[in-house]
Design brief:
The protein is α/β, with parallel strands linked by helices and about 500 residues long. Helix 1 (about 10-20) runs parallel beside helix 9 (about 240-260) and helix 5 (about 130-145) packs antiparallel against helix 6. Helices cover about 35% and strands about 20% of the residues. Strand 14 and strand 15 form a beta hairpin. The chain has 2 domains: about 10-350, Aminopeptidase, CATH 3.40.630; about 355-450. The protein starts with 10 loop residues before the first helix and ends in a 10-residue tail after the last strand. The protein has helices at about 10-20, 25, 30-35, 75-80, 130-145, 150-170, 185-190, 220-230, 240-260, 265-280, 290-295, 330-345, 350, 370-380, 410-420, 455-460, and strands spanning about 35-40, 55-60, 90-100, 105-110, 115-120, 120-125, 175-180, 195-200, 205, 210-215, 215-220, 280-285, 305, 310-315, 325, 360-365, 385-390, 400-405, 425, 435-440, 480. It is built from 16 helices and 21 strands.
């Protein structure tokens, strides 16, 4: 079986696992740091003026541990990997900002196939920047007479630095610290933390990844979690939905740790310490004690997970030879700046909101047959849960509007924006988590057949939306603050 590109998007929970929850964790921060492999990257910054730090977290498709030791045959078999592909693809790339104002942290995923401009390489997939640069540097040094070991080390350093610069150019954010975790780390740390709770909308069976799970909430061990985040076939949006899988696991683990459910015993802490030290690489000069103090200020342990906007999830490279994810660097930078601004203002609820948490009932108060069904389909395509669809029997209204328990309900506001800016009306009879869309004769928004401008409206309500109506809607934003994992594809 061909080697599957494996994502382990666990790094944000590693540091959280080290330091939050108990006095035992605080007293052992230094012991964690002593056993972790440190690396140098000249392109790292020194933190922003506001004291926030930006961390690039990378999941490396590697058949070795953080110290370069090959994985055993048993470990490779458990992870459903092989030892004949020494890949250095960085299939998980996440930029995390930890603020200095006590507000929520933000984790931004960059899809592995994003087609970007990279230093020395031109346009290429972002997951190949590390490996291509590493190999070019290694080969040139060997040819110049350097030893194989020195060439390997310098090549790896060059690969990491090239990826750091590429992410900074794409997002407009200067990276301050770097953390890397290999193939084995995901399973080890998940098991050390006692497993991870996830939720699926539907049962899945996909033999290539080993994903075989029922629908609903369930707890996975390390190898199972690896299969969960490995799957990309049979998902509606392919790799983009796999990124959401990564984020769901990260959010669940982070919440499990932050909420004080783990690290309450020395034995648990010891297991986490062993897993981190074997599987994690961090940049030199990173004072973990300062990092502890930053994390301790997070309000309620909030961490929001988002994905950069995508122009085309199934695009092609400029030479037409590779399937890629098309992104616009200017759009990405504007989106990142907006998201981080929301974070700095403590808009945790807005960051954490996802359309799937809102059920939209739609009723038709016009003579246009099928209008309610068409609008309901529009909302469903945007990620809202489908409610009842029908006619507004015996009730005629003057204007279209959205009804919700409160006028400032986030779901109602988002639905109203998606439908062209409808007014929101408070109605105590509407249950929390639901909205009621009432369509009158003045409605000309998406689904009416009268709005050739529907894509523009969608983009106005969500800057991450694509101008191409065939492109899937943006990925949901998940949060580590949720008491229960959100059900995903």
């Amino acid at each position: 079986m061909p080697v599957q590109r494996v994502v382990r998007a666990i790094a944000t929970t590693l540091a959280l696992a080290i330091v939050l929850g108990t006095g035992v964790a605080w007293s052992n921060v230094r012991s964690f740091e002593d056993g972790i492999f440190h690396m140098f990257a000249p392109s790292l910054g020194q933190g922003g003026d506001d004291g926030a730090i930006d961390i690039l977290l990378v999941g490396l498709d590697s058949r070795t541990d953080a110290h370069g030791n090959p994985l055993s045959a048993q470990e490779l078999a458990t992870l459903r990997a092989t030892d004949d592909d020494p890949s250095t693809n960085t299939d998980t790339i996440i930029l995390i900002r930890i603020p200095n104002n006590g507000k929520s942290a933000t984790a931004i995923s960059i899809p592995r196939d994003s087609y970007v401009q990279a230093p020395g390489l031109g346009k290429t997939k972002i997951n190949g920047v590390y490996g291509q640069t590493r190999e070019a540097k290694r080969a040139s040094l060997v040819q110049a007479g350097d030893s194989a070991a020195d060439a390997e080390a310098q090549g790896t350093e060059a690969g990491r630095d090239a990826l750091i610069r590429t992410v900074a150019d794409l997002t407009g954010v200067t990276v301050d610290h770097y953390a890397e975790i290999g193939l084995l780390g995901f399973a080890l740390i998940t098991d050390a933390l006692g497993g991870v709770e996830v939720c699926l909308k539907e049962a899945v069976y996909e033999p290539l990844s080993g994903a075989d799970f029922p629908a609903g909430r369930q707890k996975l061990n390390g190898p199972q979690a690896l299969s969960f985040v490995r799957q990309r076939h049979d998902l509606p949006r392919g790799d983009l939905d796999r990124v959401v899988r990564q984020q769901a696991v990260m959010a669940s683990l982070a919440h499990h740790v932050i909420s004080g459910q783990t690290l309450s015993s020395p034995s648990t802490l010891h297991r986490v310490e062993q897993a981190v030290q074997r599987s994690m690489v961090i940049s030199s000069g990173w004072d973990l004690m300062d990092f502890v103090q930053q994390l301790s200020k997070l309000a309620g342990g909030k961490v929001a997970f988002a994905t950069v906007p995508v122009l085309d999830g199934a695009g092609w490279s400029d030479d037409g030879m590779q399937s890629v994810v098309r992104v616009d660097p200017h759009q990405v930078q504007e989106w990142v700046a907006s998201l981080l601004n929301d974070q700095s203002q403590g808009k945790t609820e807005q960051l954490a909101y996802t359309p799937a948490t809102t059920t939209a009932d739609v009723v038709n108060d016009t003579d246009i047959n099928g209008l309610a069904a068409a609008v309901s389909e529009v909302l469903n395509s945007k990620g809202f849960s489908t409610g009842t669809v029908g006619n507004n029997e015996g009730r005629h209204v003057k204007g279209s509007h959205v009804r919700a328990t409160k006028s400032d309900d986030l779901g109602a506001q988002q639905v109203a924006k998606e439908l062209g800016g409808l007014p929101v009306v408070a109605d105590a009879s509407i249950p929390p988590g639901s909205v009621r869309v009432v369509l009158a004769n003045d409605y000309t928004g998406p689904g009416s057949g009268l709005s050739g401008d529907s894509v523009t409206l969608a983009r106005a309500s969500n800057p991450g939306a694509s101008a191409d109506p065939n492109v899937p809607p943006p990925s949901p934003i998940l949060t580590a603050g949720a008491d229960k994992p959100e059900c995903i594809n």
